[in-house]
Amino acid sequence: MNVELWQLALLMGAGTIAGALNVIAGGGSLMTVPIMLFLGLSGPEANGTNRISIIAQNIVAVRTFFRRGFSEFRLSLTLSAAAIPGAILGALVGVQLDGEWFDRVLAMVMLGVLVLMQIPSKRAVDGGNPMTRKKLIIGHVLMFGAGCWGGFIQVGVGFILMPILHRVMGLDLVRTNMHKVFIALTYNLFAIVVFAAAVSIHWQFGLALAAGNALGGYFGARFSVQGGEVWIRRIFTVVLLIFIAKLLLPSG
Prior knowledge:
single chain; about 250 residues; 9 helices; about 80% helix
């Protein structure tokens, strides 16, 4: 298909916003995937192409967190190892997916996450709410399921990863975002291979999105560290409400 300059500019702009959203809370793919569908890609093609930008965004985000003193690579790696098999399984289903039937299911997942995140809990701080073996085991088991969803559609996976890391494992929201971007980076490296083998990935669209997502990922990671937990929670709640409404309102 012929690619025009305005299409690449549109995707880069959308990717910048989506990259920041994905790092701070999640849901950026709810912007980028529909745009690619509008530009003529099929559901599986848009689903696979979107992975290019997610990988670029999270490479930058991981590096930004690391440079600002936030890294726990051992835990990030074990959580990623739990998510990768699920992501491969999900991607094998995702390459067959076409249409919008999953929108209502996604909205229900997001609504459940919104309720869960608003339930008061003890503040998770170093030494104040220590990691236990039980939390580690449960978190890793649930991470397989999160990987399945991420490999399947990617859209809204941040809304699944965040409560696992924050609510179940007891991590504060800055560390939650730090692990989230690392996990999403690693499992998408495997998922994109599955998509590339089964469908046509539009590399021009993907690279335009990647440039925007990388820029957005940089600003999103900086804001996560500087804005701290309070602003992350506020933005997360607002983004959830907007996307739930978007998914539940009749299209057209």
